[in-house]
Every structure is written in C-alpha cells, then in structure tokens.
Amino acid sequence: NGIEALLTEQDRSLVQQLIELDQEHLFLSWPPPGEKDTEKKGLLEQLQHLDRNYTGGLAAYIKNAKHLLEDSRSGKNAFEGFKPSVPDGKKLDFGSAEFKEFEELGVTTSKEAAFVLVAGGLGERLGYSGIKVALPTELASGKCFLEVYIESILALQSKAGGSAQLPLAIMTSGDTHARTEKLLQDNAYFGMQPGQVTLLKQEKVACLNDVDAHLALEKDNPFAVQTKPHGHGDVHALLHTSGLLKRWVAAGVRWVAFFQDTNALVFRGLPAALGVSARYGYDMNSLAVPRKAKEAIGGIASLQRPDGTALTINVEYNLLDPLLRANGWADGDVNDDSGYSPFPGNINQLVLKADSYAEALEKTQGIIAEFVNPKYKDDTRTAFKSSTRLECMMQDFPHGLPPTAAVGFTVVNQVWAAYSPVKNSPADAAAKAAGGNPSHSATSGELDIYRTNCAALRMAGATIEGPEQREFNGLTVDLWPRVSWSPFFAITFADLEAKVDAEKVRLSKDAALVINGADVHIKSLDLDGALVIDTAPEASLVIDGLKVQNKGWKWQALNPNKPMTEEQMIRGFLVCRREALKLEYHTAGSYLYPDTSDASKESAMSGATAMA
Ligand code: UGB
Predict the structure, then answer these.
(1) Does ligand 1 lie within 6 Å of residue 131's CB atom?
(2) Does residue 152 contact residue 259 with C-beta atoms inside 8 Å?
(3) Which of 10, 41, 248, 568 is the most buried (most CB within 10 A)?
C-alpha cells in the first residue's frame, strides 16, 4: 500500500525492524499510493523520532516492554523474595549543633557540586496552567521557584569563593521546555551565566495497546502513535546521552544534587545532606522526611535480596504495604510510637557521588529500572482499559549500583523544615488534610516558608509572636509572621546567626519582613507592620535600634465573588499591601539605619520610603 515509494534508506531499516517485531498493524490501514502521503510521511518521521530518543531505539523499547508486560501479566512482584528492614542513615534536628556542623561541611562540599532540577511535569494535579517553576514561592517577596533555586546555588557559589561557576541542569519536557527557556531569558537567568545552565529536554515514549507490546495508534488518527511521559527517571539517560555528566566529572564535579520543581525549602536541607554525603562517602544519599504511614510518598527501605546482598531503595507507597505484609509486618504500612512510619519518606532530593554515578550510567546507558503499570480490563490480565507505556523514576537509581555501593539517607526530623512541595489542588489538599496527611498545596507551601524562617529566627534567640490560626481554601493553618529572606542573605544557620543579633529582634504576629540583599546586618529591630529591605550587592547596611509600626500587609482569605488570579486561587488568599517601610540602597557604600548622625542623615533618609 504505497510504503516502498515513501521510504528513505533509514526508514526502510526501521520499518523492516518494526515488522520483524510484530508491528505491521502500524502500516496495514494505509490507503493506496498517492493517497495521504503527507500523513504517511508524518508517521514515519514520528517513528524515527521515537527511535532516536530511546537508548537502543524502538527495538529495545518494544523488547523491554514485552518483558515487563509479561512480568505484569503473570503478577510478578518486583520485590519478590526481598526482605525489608529499616535502613541506616543520618537523622538530624533542624538547627541542632550537629545539623549546623553538617551544613557547614556541605557548604565546603558544594564547591565540587552540580545541581539538577527535574521540571518536566505540568501542574495538572495542582490545577495550575503555567509551568510550576514560574509560580511564586510566597507572596511576601513574590520570588518564583526557579529564582529561589538559582539564587540558592549562586549563594553557595559565592560562599565557596573563587571563580568556579556551579553548574545547573534543568530537565524539561515538551510541556515545559519553551516556557522554562523564556522564563530564564526574560529574567537574565536570575543572575547565572547563561552557559552555567543546561536544559535537557525529555521526550515522550510510545504507548502500548496490549500485552504483546503492539504500539498504540491515536484513536482519531491512524498516522500517529500515542505517546506519554516516561517519568522523571529520564534524567539519568539524558545526563548520560548528552555527555553532560562526563563533562562535569572531567571538570572536577564530585557530587550531583537533584531536586524537584516546587519545594522552596530544599536548600534548607540540601547543604546538610551534601555534608552527610561527604562525611560518609555515600554513593547515593536521599534527603528524606519523616513519613506518615500510607502517605502518598515512597518509603526508603533496606531490602535483603535472596542472594544475601542488600539494596537500599525507595519503595513506592502502593508497594510498601503489600511488601511489609508479605514479610511478617502484620499491620503493613503503619506508624510506630513516634507517630510516623519507621521508613523515611522519599522526596526525590538526592545527592549522588559523581564518579560512581557516571560509572553506573556507562553500564546501564541510563536506562534504570523501568516498570509498566497497565490498568487491566478484568482479572484475566490480558486487555487494558487504555493504552499504557514504560515508565521510570529517578529514585530507582540504586538498581544501577553494585551491591557494594554505600546508599544512605539524611532525614530532617522537622517535616516542615526542608520539604513542603506545591503539588495538590485545593480540593485534593483539603482531602489529604482531612486524612491527617500533609496537604502539599500552594497554601502550605507558602506558609511553611514563613514557619521555617520564624523557627530559625527563634532558635537564634529572636522573639517571634504568633502563629495565628487561619482558614484558607478550607485548610486550617498556622500563619506565622511573614518572613522571607534572599538566599544571599542567609543560606545556612551560620549566616543567619552572623547577620542577625536575634536576641534584640521582635516580630509581632502581623509582621512582614522581606530581606533582599547580601550584606545586611540586623543589630536590633522591633517590627509591627511591614518592612522591606532591598540592597545592591555593593551596599552594606546595618539596622540598629529600628522600631517599625505601620499598617503593614494583610493575608486575606479570598472572596469567591471577586475576580482572582490562578496564583491566588490555589492559595486561597491574597495580600493586601496597606503600608510598609522600604529601605532601598542601590549604590555602593556603607549605610546605617536609622542614622541619627547629622552628617549622614540626609543620605540615610533618602534610602527609606513609606510605601502605601
Ligand atoms: N517530572 C519530570 O521532570 N518528568 C516527568 O515525566 C514526571 C515528573 P511529581 P510523583 O515528593 O511527594 C514523586 O509528579 O512522581 C518531575 C516520587 O516518585 O510531582 O508523583 C516533576 O516536574 C514519590 O516517591 O511526583 O512522586 C517534579 O519536579 C514522592 O517522593 C518531579 O519530577 C513524591 O515525588 C516529581 O514529579 C513526593
């Protein structure tokens, strides 16, 4: 039916291969030569594209799929014969002496670190139409996730000193690539050198119609194969096939730190995790959180294989309960006396040792532990409700490591301090909260930043009033004073303690404090209202004896009858900015505020404005 005439040499070999792999159905409905040739060409191009973007090509994809679909059909359990136990790792109290010690070690370690942000997912679950990294982390400063991440890396870079530029790779997808690139370009890469950032775009993979791994054509278009995302595990193959990881290792990178798209607090825990990796030489270290039993995050477990070797790995939440029950944990996935599951919660924030990582990718070509999760029509497990595809998860990387590898975790015991992602829509968040689980919503994501900052200030000795209990989007939440500081001001506890004489700081429960500047020292401050400090990198500001009382900023629940933005809607509040004192110093110099000396009164006062 006209296929011969259309084929290039390359097409010919791919089509031949596909026919040998029992995929003739892709071409059987083609009309005679001369009809629908453009559409036929389109399908051939798409097949070439799918072939190029999977390690080993479509032939390897179909072979892997047949194997995994057979395992799934026969009900083979991926963890069959594995005996779970609670793994070893480091548990740290946020702000403790030990935490600070690891944090400082992590700062030194970060000189040889590269960073990877996985940001290929869209915010469908969240009910947000934009890319998630463009969402504001909190409304006090209005900084978006990507800005906070990049500033955190730059803050670590400037603490490391020298001219080294810490590299950042961002995994995007067809859904997020163009908008991520534009966000970076429109904002001058948030201060990074453009060459410091590499975008790696993940491609979708072909869908499968049945247990024999026949590729699925679109329902309304027989000239297009259905495709779906392959999962965040693609990051490993992309770092390998792009050659980026090898270039990093050659340039002296020793650690690779991974993080997700909407966790503004990740850099509160990541330096300490880098320190733990360096101290214990972990090939893989998961920054983890205490996990509530049955919560929809995976549990990190140590699994003894039938051959006696052990594998420390995340067990996804739907598999943990049956695995535990099959191994003598009569009640399965339940909390222990601490009120949490004994298995630390995986949050996909990983620190990998670069050389063993590169070695593992060389061996596996970056294809690590794929799985398939078809929804079967009935118990015969032969037909699917809808097409499926192979998937992979970044946290499954230990499957690529030798049994001798050192795999550990770093738990920050205070669950709100290092993990509060923005994942769920208001309705889903309310349901999670009702079930006693963290809501992981835009509301909690913002309020946990204030809570963590207030906790850090309190630990340093400040008087922080509050919190006030409020209700937003049906969630009952603690609203702490709205404190936000730039990573350049403080990326570690030691920075905070060096810059704030906390015992002489008091914030009222309604205070809002935004610090946007590196060289700012607060010697004494009494704040009841809003204060915004904005200084250029060359300006040094000391605040001493400042008492602020103004109408401030109010976090107001939304009125459902009034227009609202998507960013406000997913939070359930808006900020009514009534009055603030704004201290702005945009030119080089040393400033004191308030400055009561006659000589500098004029220049100091010119930096301060009351904002309506
Ligand atoms: N992502 C991609 O970059 N590409 C993809 O194809 C898919 C996602 P989700 P998920 O922290 O609570 C994970 O969708 O997969 C990016 C862990 O598996 O937010 O449901 C995406 O942009 C789980 O064990 O999470 O669950 C985002 O940055 C638990 O740790 C990241 O991957 C859970 O996260 C995660 O994607 C959690």
Answers:
(1) no
(2) no
(3) 248
Q: Which residue has the tokens 């970044």?
A: 394
Residue 63 three-state SS: helix
Given a contact cutoff of 8 angstroms between Cβ atoms, the answer to whether 368 and 400 are in contact is yes
Residue type, 317: Y
Q: What tens digit of pLDDT does each residue of 137-176 get?
A: 999 999 999 999 999 999 999 997 767 899 999 999 999 9
Task: Choose among 354, 387, 50, 397: nearest CA to 202.
Answer: 50
Name the residue type at position 286. S
Q: What is the 118 CA–ligand 1 centroid distance (Å)?
A: 8
Q: What is the ipTM of this complex?
A: 0.97
Write down the residue that tokens 């308030």 correspond to.
Answer: 594
Query: Residue 527: beta bridge partners?
Result: 507, 548
User: How many CB atoms are closer than 10 A to CB 3?
Assistant: 14
Among 115, 116, 117, 118, residue to substitute to test ligand 1 (most atoms within 8 Å of Cβ): 118
Say yes or no: CB of residue 171 within 6 Å of ligand 1: yes
Instruction: Please state, in angstroms and rounded to a whole number, the distance separating the CA atoms of residues 83 and 551.
Output: 60
pTM of this prediction?
0.94
Q: Closest ligand 1 atom to the C-alpha of 298?
A: 24
